[in-house]
Design goal:
The structure holds two protein chains of two kinds.
Chain A lengths: L4 E6 L5 H25 L4 H12 L3 H25 L8 H18 L5 H30 L3 H21 L23 E2 L2 E2 L1 H18 L1 H11 L1 H6 L4 H28 L10 H11 L4 H16 L1 H6 L6 H21 E6 L3 H17 L4
Helix pairs in contact in A: 1-14, 3-7, 3-10, 3-11, 3-12, 4-5, 4-6, 4-10, 4-11, 5-6, 5-10, 7-8, 7-12, 11-12
Chain B lengths: L6 E10 L2 E11 L4 E5 L6 H8 L7 E6 L2 E2 L5 H7 L1 E4 L11 H8 L9 H14 L15 H14 L4 E5 L7 H16 L3 E6 L2 H7 L2 E6 L2 E7 L5 H9 L18 E11 L5 E11 L3 E5 L6 H9 L4 E8 L2 E2 L5 H6 L2 E4 L14 H5 L10 E2 L2 E2 L1 H15 L15 H13 L5 E5 L7 H17 L2 E5 L3 H7 L2 E6 L2 E7 L5 H8 L5
Parallel strand pairs in B: 3-8, 3-9, 6-7, 7-8, 13-20, 13-21, 16-19, 19-20
Antiparallel strand pairs in B: 1-2, 1-4, 4-5, 9-10, 11-12, 11-14, 14-15, 17-18, 21-22
Classes of the chains: A mainly alpha, B alpha/beta.
Chain lengths: 373, 504
């Protein structure tokens, strides 16, 4: 090659600013890519995005709506992230969400009446237990028989969602109703609103901070990190890997179950079919976009919550609301692609003078002598 | 020289990023010669051969093959030119027969496989070069030495004129190595040219015609084997650096029985018996070496002692207490530490930093965590202590250990494993792939540990290392214990015989 060459080189280290900047750049790029699709639909992207942003982030009412929409996403994001911190793919937050809602809902609708704060606390733990137990099925299969947890958690989603459907269309269906939903839960179990925002947001912040500290400063977090980075070294160091698979997946499921808690007690106040509404899958996107950092997950969830929240307003403009799902997908692809540039750098090789001369000689001789054949 | 070179490499330069792996290397290869490439790990031997094989492209330099200029573009191109290589890790399919494996390696293979013709061809070569290979045998049934012969056979069937062998003796017993060199010599007599890569000066001197020594990507010396001597080669291999002689051979206090292993039976990963009911005793204050060709059960033995592998039958007593069923953590707390063979797969966490690697075995202790919270100051202090005690060079305690050199990684691992004065140190190939400086430092550390009164179980495939360090040596062959000798009362030949399975 006469003029040098472009090639990719693996980076040794990634600076913090790069780690932060990179996803931001590629999220913006994702919006640019999305605008191509918006234009293809015959709309101007700038006004569409402008409307979306002003509606969902730049006014109080919209922001409140976005945060409320982000609440279940936060817990699902945390759920996926904690599992991924140990290289476990929990694709089942959706189903664990549903099981959490079922466990909590059973108590709220049919359980013994308890005084106000206590009933909420019991419900919180029941939701967590429901999600946790559901994930524990996959965890046990993984820990004891090395069954792929990705497949199992995914399959368990269908079971959980159909079971939720069955309850809401069947035994739990509210009388004289045509939609698949239960009656509302007792009013004293509603999560209080603070200026319109569900107080679940505080729960999310507390849990995210605790998770962050746990992963960073405790022996538990350290062991999770060792297992993620080198399973064989973890076994060599006597870290109980099986136990951690059980604990971490159960914790992951419990977090998704809590998404059910905030959704039921904070937003819809009842159990209904299709309650998770894809939050579990969006959680995967969020965990990935946030690189599994619990604090970043909160912010990214608000961004995606805002996206969902703004689907209504773009519909008024005549843009199909599916555009939101499309943007979400484009962001994901863009950020994953951008990850590559975090790990590799593009190098442009200019042949240095000395070797250039040698190369020129080479080329010269090749022209004269021809290649070895 | 009146003979014309078959191959000439001139001014070959290869850069990887900023690292100069080959710096203007010249190499001539004549027909019918055995040429040795000598050098430490990382001196550029393999890079040069990969350029010859068309795997890498040089940044500059030229090659003449049979007097014609040009570059070897791809491995396929190299094969077509008659250049082939036996890699350290064989490329054979275990479930197929020898003949079938050879079919696979041919460039132009007829649609219908003529087994008979192939078998005849293999037999013919077998006889011609005394290269014993059974064409009908399945590869998985073959010993490592036999597999290597299949690899050589592959090159012969492809009519290679230049055969490159990468560290061919690493997996062989001394006797097998002798056989292999006889075969190479016969091939050379038939006009084939052979390049073999090695870092063992003795075998190079004995079996090569000419020697080229590489260091840091440069040719530091070239000589006829008849002119070679150890001092000259060592100087070229190591440079002006002093080769440190180990002087602390003085015995520590030996005696007390530490480990009593009785009839150990252990399975390998495939569930086959890897150790056949072996018994041995380890004493405090000795270095007990395990010799044997690769894959004779060494890994399984080390893992069984460390508590990483289940013991199917038999028992292990430590100072009279049964530890057969004690788990890894239990054994660590009883004072058993383990330096595994492949530090980046097991032992270190490449993606985590020095502090996190340092505290791997002790993070549960009161000194390094309280109430489940890691005490980062104490961990940093411990890491700094290791760094200064063992002269570990690093780019920062917060950088992943994968960025450190192999020697410094191994020093950190060993520092961690000897911290807290363990009673038994299992060291599997502790200096494999390390340069001479790091090797000397690690040998010194192991001897210090012995003199302190610890028992070191040293697994090695280098007899030089075993004879230099150990007090007693046990030989494994095919998972059986062939014998235990006092190192001072045995020699290379006896150990070699035992390694090949001949009982003494």
């Amino acid at each position: 090659m006469k003029i040098g060459a472009i090639r990719f080189e693996k980076k040794q280290t990634v600076s913090l600013s790069r780690k932060v900047l990179n996803p931001v750049i590629f999220i913006l790029l994702g919006f640019v890519l999305s605008s191509v699709f918006i234009m293809a639909n015959g709309f101007q992207p700038i006004p569409v995005f402008g409307k979306m942003i002003t509606y969902s982030l730049l006014n109080t009412r919209g922001l409140i709506g976005s945060i409320n929409a982000a609440l279940p996403l936060m817990f699902c994001g945390l759920s996926v992230a904690i599992a991924f911190k140990m290289n476990l793919n929990n694709i089942g937050a959706e189903g664990q969400f549903a099981m959490g809602a079922i466990f909590g809902g059973a108590f709220a609708l049919y359980g013994p009446a308890l005084p106000a704060p206590l009933s909420g606390i019991v419900m919180f733990f029941l939701c967590a237990i429901g999600g946790g137990l559901w994930a524990l099925i996959a965890a046990a299969l993984k820990a004891y028989w090395n069954v792929n947890e990705t497949i199992v958690t995914l399959m368990l989603n269908y079971i959980a969602l159909l079971f939720l459907d069955y309850l809401c269309y069947g035994p739990w269906m509210a009388p004289k109703q045509t939609t698949a939903m239960t009656v509302t839960i007792p009013q004293d179990m509603y999560l209080p609103l603070i200026g319109g925002t569900s107080s679940g947001i505080f729960l999310a912040i507390i849990i995210a901070v605790l998770l962050y500290l746990f992963l960073k400063y405790t022996t538990g977090g350290y062991q999770i990190s060792v297992i993620k980075n080198s399973l064989r070294t973890a076994e060599y160091a006597g870290i109980p890997v099986k136990k951690y698979i059980l604990i971490v997946l159960a914790l992951s499921g419990a977090l998704a179950g809590v998404a059910g808690f905030v959704q039921v007690t904070g937003i819809v106040h009842r159990v209904q079919a299709q309650l998770p509404g894809g939050s579990g899958y969006t959680g995967i996107v969020i965990a990935y976009l946030s690189q599994c950092n619990p604090l970043v997950i909160l912010l990214v969830s608000v961004l995606l919550g805002a996206l969902q929240n703004s689907s209504a307003v773009v519909q008024i403009m005549g843009v199909p609301s599916q555009i939101v799902t499309m943007i979400q997908g484009t962001l994901m692809i863009s950020v994953i692609a951008g990850e590559f540039f975090n790990r590799y750098r593009i190098v442009y090789y200019k042949a240095d003078p000395e070797s250039k001369r040698a190369e020129q000689k080479n080329n010269h001789s090749e022209q004269k002598g021809g290649a070895v054949q | 020289m009146e003979k014309t070179a078959l191959l000439e490499m001139k001014g070959i330069t290869k850069k990887f990023g900023t690292v100069l792996a080959n710096d203007h290397i010249d190499l001539q290869l004549y027909p019918g010669e055995i040429h040795a490439l000598l050098g430490e790990n990382g001196s550029g031997k393999s890079t040069l051969m990969n350029i010859l094989l068309g795997i890498y492209k040089p940044n500059s330099g030229e090659m003449l093959y049979k007097g014609e200029k040009g570059q070897i573009k791809t491995p396929k191109h190299a094969a077509a030119l008659g250049i082939g290589m036996v890699h350290q890790h064989f490329a054979l399919i275990p479930t197929l027969t020898v003949a079938e494996n050879i079919f696979l390696s041919l460039d132009h293979c007829s649609f219908i496989l003529d087994q008979q013709k192939m078998e005849n061809k293999i037999r013919e070569y077998s006889e011609q070069f005394s290269l014993e290979v059974d064409p009908g045998a399945k590869v998985w049934q073959l010993s490592v030495g036999e597999q290597q012969r299949v690899e050589i056979m592959k090159l012969l069937c492809r009519n290679c004129e230049i055969l490159v062998l990468d560290e061919p003796t690493a997996v062989l017993t001394p006797q097998e190595a002798g056989e292999m060199f006889k075969t190479l010599r016969k091939m050379a007599e038939h006009g084939k040219s052979i390049i073999f890569i090695s870092h063992k000066m003795n075998e190079v001197m004995e079996h090569a015609d000419r020697i080229t020594v590489l260091k840091n990507g440069r040719v530091t010396d070239r000589m006829l084997a008849s002119d070679a001597d150890i001092d000259r080669m060592a100087k070229a291999v190591v440079g002006e650096r002093d080769i440190e002689k180990i002087t602390i051979r003085s015995k520590g206090k030996t005696g007390e029985l530490l480990i009593d292993a009785k009839d150990l039976r252990v399975l390998n990963d495939k569930g086959l018996v890897a150790l056949h009911d072996i018994s041995f005793q380890l004493k405090a204050g000795e270095i007990f070496a395990i010799a044997g060709v690769a894959g004779s059960g060494q890994r399984e033995l080390a893992e069984a002692l460390a508590g990483l592998r289940k013991i199917t039958s038999g028992r292990i007593l430590m100072k009279g207490n049964e530890i057969t069923k004690t788990n890894i953590r239990g054994r660590v707390s009883k004072g058993i530490s383990f330096i595994p063979e492949d530090r980046l797969k097991m032992g270190l966490i490449p993606g985590m930093n020095m502090k996190e690697n340092t505290v791997l075995k002790e993070f549960r202790g009161k000194a390094y965590s309280r109430g489940g919270i890691l005490l980062s100051k104490a961990i940093r202090a411990l890491t700094e202590k290791h760094v200064s005690d063992h002269d570990i060079k690093h780019g920062g305690l917060d950088l992943p250990v994968s960025l450190m050199s192999g020697g410094n990684q191994q020093k950190l691992l060993i520092a961690r494993e000897i911290n807290g004065n363990p009673e038994l140190i299992i060291a599997a190939y502790p200096v494999r792939g390390l340069d001479i400086g790091a090797t000397a430092a690690i040998h010194r550390t192991l001897l210090e540990q012995r003199n302190r009164g610890a028992c070191v179980l040293l697994i090695s495939e280098e007899l030089d290392e075993i004879f230099e360090l150990s007090d007693r040596v046990a030989v494994l062959c095919g998972g059986k214990l062939m014998g235990i000798r006092n190192t001072s009362e045995t020699d290379y030949e006896e150990i070699g015989r035992l390694m090949s399975g001949e009982s003494a």
